[in-house]
Write a structure and sequence with these properties.
Largest interface: A-B, 24 and 23 residues
Shape of chain B: globular
Order of helices and strands of chain A: EEEEEEEEEEE
Structural class of chain A: mainly beta
Structural class of chain B: mainly beta
Strand content of chain B: over 45%
Distance between the termini of chain B: 40 Å
Radius of gyration of chain A: 13 Å
Number of strands of chain B: 11
Distance between the termini of chain A: 36 Å
Helix content of chain A: under 10%
Helix content of chain B: under 10%
Oligomer: heterodimer
Number of strands of chain A: 11
Shape of chain A: globular
Number of helices of chain B: 0
């Protein structure tokens, strides 16, 4: 059984470039969450998606950030015109469905902005 | 939003020692999970425990929902237990988004 797969594991971008982070949930899971983690801090919620729908994006900055979870293919977190403050670990988690289901996390993508 | 407080923030143990980690939350919850983030960053789900007590090997967890806290017990700690332990809660009636505490950083020395 494949768990949550995230790629790339490490991503280096220069200021102003675009970053695309990919997440393939556990097979059969239809709910995806994206979290951001800064050093020495907990995980901050960004966005919650179901297939083809954004359920809650209250934790995502209004500008430059977007997320999708298409009917086919992985979920994508896209950051346009990256700035140094975007440097962080981005984690994706999936669950089978609501309510009250266990979360399974990927290994994360470490984004470094030069 | 709901507040999640974890204590202690840092913990250092000798191998073989026991420990208790605490998670307090500010509102009623209908879901609580404990996670272990290992030194390589991987997050592992330890327990899904909205109430009651569960055990898994040397780890056990108890949630007292009416008093708004959960405890994670680690017995006979091993160096591989090192890492950060997070609890995450969900409020009822919300959009099922787990809110994380800041974690307890555990170091187990051989």
């Amino acid at each position: 059984n494949a768990g949550v797969m995230q790629n790339p594991r490490h991503l280096v971008r220069r200021r102003g470039q675009e970053a695309r982070l990919r997440c393939s949930p556990v097979k059969g899971h239809s709910h995806v969450y994206w979290y951001r983690q800064l050093p020495e801090e907990g995980l901050k919620f960004m966005v919650y998606l179901q297939k083809e729908n954004i359920i809650d994006e209250s934790g995502m900055p209004k500008e430059r950030f977007s997320a999708e979870f298409p009917k086919e293919g992985p979920s994508i977190l896209r950051i346009q015109q990256v700035v140094r403050g975007d440097s962080a670990a981005y984690f994706c988690a999936s669950s089978p469905g609501q309510p009250n289901e266990k979360l399974f996390f990927g290994s994360g993508t470490q984004l470094s902005v030069l | 939003g709901i507040q999640v407080e974890q204590s202690p923030p840092d913990l250092i143990l000798q191998e073989g020692a026991n420990s208790t980690l605490r998670c307090n939350f500010s509102d009623s919850v209908n879901n609580l999970q404990w996670f272990h983030q290992n030194p390589w960053g991987q997050l592992i789900n330890l327990f899904y425990i909205p109430s009651g007590t569960k055990q898994n090997g040397r780890l056990s967890a108890t949630t007292v929902a009416t008093e708004r806290y959960s405890l994670l017990y680690i017995s006979s700690s091993q160096t591989t237990d090192s890492g950060v332990y997070f609890c995450a809660v969900e409020k009822p009636g919300g959009s099922y988004i787990p809110t994380f505490g800041r974690g307890t950083s555990l170091i187990v020395h051989p």
